[in-house]
Design brief:
transcription; mainly alpha; Four Helix Bundle (Hemerythrin (Met), subunit A); transcription regulation; 2 strands; 2 domains; GntR family transcriptional regulator; Arc Repressor Mutant, subunit A; DNA-binding; two-stranded antiparallel sheet; about 5% strand
Amino acid sequence: MPDKRATSPAEAATKEKRKAASTHEVIQDLRERIASQALLPGTRVPEEDLAQAYDIPRAKAREVLATLEDRALVERVPNKGAVVAFVDMETTYRLYQVREALDGLAVRLAIANATPADWEAMQALLGEPFEQSLKDGDIEAHVATIEQFRNHIKTLARNPVLSDMIERIYDRTRVSMRRVALLPGRSEMGIKQYRALLDAMVRGDADEAERCVRELNGSARDYIERYKNYVI
């Protein structure tokens, strides 16, 4: 793996003068930076740095850190304070097991709620550009499409409790998801699996759709186990 230098929140955030961000905007930005590893595990996230980087009061910075800690993206370490959390192999494996079950429920609910327009939008997502992004080596675009597709399913499920649980799992597996996409043959297999899942959903076959999404997550978990020294 190429060596990456950890950046502080102040360095990672834009240096341009801007309107003070809302708590939600700061949380979303930090979630993305952690997922993309602009902020590496172990990076300190001092309250004062957040306040300065995002031009927000210290009280709001504390609220941001409390939310990230609640989502297990940040942890408190003695003598260091708040740092970006590291997700170990055992935890990653267990997260994928839970994700498999949650996704199974989500696809069942989505099938019941989807309209023809929803299916058209999802089919467009998994069309030729989805495959072409992989051929072009644009992994970021490829993974972004997968996240959009999964977000469609989560939204169509129309269950706020389930949605929150899925988001928390995704937050902690997005780094491994990006790395798994780079593994030999994984993305090519994933394209077939995502399309098979969507076909089952469009047909209204909830049992087959759940089987497909469990197989998809299970194979990703197998890749993580096989390439654990790279993924974790």
